[in-house]
Amino acid sequence: MNKTQLPSDIHFIQRGWFHCNHVVVQDPDGPIIIDTGQHTGVEDTVALLQERGIDPTAIQLIINTHCHTDHWGGNARLQALSGAPVICGPKTAEIFANGDTRAMWVDYFGMAESYELPSPMILPSKIIAPGDSIQLGRYSFQILAAPGHAPDSIALFEPKYGILLCADAMFEQDCGVMNSKVSGEKTLDEALTTLARFKELDATIALPGHGPIITDVAENIEAVSHLIRLFQRRSDKHARHLCARAFAFSLLILQPIPRTKFLTMFEEAPWLHDNAAILGIPKPTDLLAKLTEEFIQRGLVQDNHGILTSTIPL
Ligand SMILES: [Zn+2]
Fold first, then answer.
1. Distance in Å, CA 153 to ligand 1 centroid
2. DSSP secondary structure string, 62-92?
3. Ligand 1 ion: nearby residues, β-carbon < 5 Å
4. Percent of the chain clearing pLDDT 90 (strictly above)
5. What CATH architecture applies to the domain 10-233?
């Protein structure tokens, strides 16, 4: 078998950007889903599963890789349909138990008031810790710690087939947001350590949390490590990477929204303050206006009579 192709009993469901991708492993006792997307638009998730012949009511297990809402927002709906338990890593379980919106970045992105957390919060019924193995269908996956983008993140690796579920630790030629202000100054170092750990696995195929399947895994690890080392040297590059994603995430949640409202509602948002300072922009709201203009020029945001909407796929 060509090892850069996924076996037919593992589905990779690639979403746009707002929702995470889903990985589904087929098993005679029912499908197992890794990461469930945002709660808003969860019916699209259900429909996408059905389109691929996956019965959402038959799901036997839900696994979450980390605590960001785009990875677990669909838990409640999928559990209501199937009764499936949720399992996750130990640090994610702690964040869920505490309803820690800081760790989930809701506070940092200034969304505490405008973003309603998925509810009810489903607490995990079991923990999978780094070092454990878990049988998913006919595959035995090793659980790895994958801090960097999220300190609580786990990755799953199947050595026989060389399949790595890397969540947001690595995308195709990119990585998830590196949020040193929330996750600590060691974030970038940890991200590099995670990538070095991935390199040792010799994976032939990596399934990221966002974006397409990665088949040139070793080369991709090099490229992403290079990007993170660039962030270590150049705080402005790091700030711009974070700002573009925080901006897009915020607009996708709030759209359609009047431009005048959008441009003033993040006055207190930590991400805007911190990164305006790094980029040498005296007024944080000027940074927001600048990002809006840039996104409009790139065709990623439309301003129709003062109402902003995004063209970024969900
Ligand atoms: Zn994430």
1. 8
2. EEESSS-HHHHTTHHHHHHHH---EEE-HHH
3. 68, 168
4. 95
5. 4-Layer Sandwich (3.60)
